[in-house]
């Protein structure tokens, strides 16, 4: 399995600081040195721009790490010798398929199953992940982010599974999910986009861009754009199109499209 794209993705996580102006405040630099297992208290940074930079500094390595894991799993799928699977390998991949809501039994053969899986197992553009994290967590300062590491507004539906929203309407039973770490929240968010039926349009559009890139070899014309792919997430919020406009506005205003261009140079086809 080629490891160079994966290593480069991980290295990008360590190069994030170089993408920002050298005038970043000492408050921002100090807070972003926190452990990835603990969400910093971003509210202590009083300067808004410094706070935003600290949030990106903290989040982007987590996003890059998770995308590297997805890249590794995707490459393993591509390299898989389907006609030579041992019983142990078959059981392993059956579990992976079930986890992505793509069981073997749904397909005529494993070739079709792999094609369906490759639509689901793929990277999430960093600009999109950043914009949703910023929007859903109030730039990391919301109660649910600070108390439960919930950076993407994800719900759960069994009593005691998370934090109860103060403004939850009468008769509703959802809670806001609690995660053991910010990295776990990023992993769950990406898995949600890659597996839940609500985001099929998002995944199909991403796959079409992949196919265009392979056919034309024009990376600049067909890279995975968070700004563009945001259009497939109408179901993420009851605000629908207005929510998509918010995400695209955040990406555009903060000029985050460059993160997508960087990661696309190394993500597998």
UniProtKB/TrEMBL annotation:
Record organism: Thiomicrospira aerophila AL3
Protein name: FlgJ
Mannosyl-glycoprotein endo-beta-N-acetylglucosamidase-like domain ranges (all copies): 124-252
Alphabetized GO MF terms: amidase activity
InterPro entries: Bax-like, MGlyc_endo_b_GlcNAc-like_dom
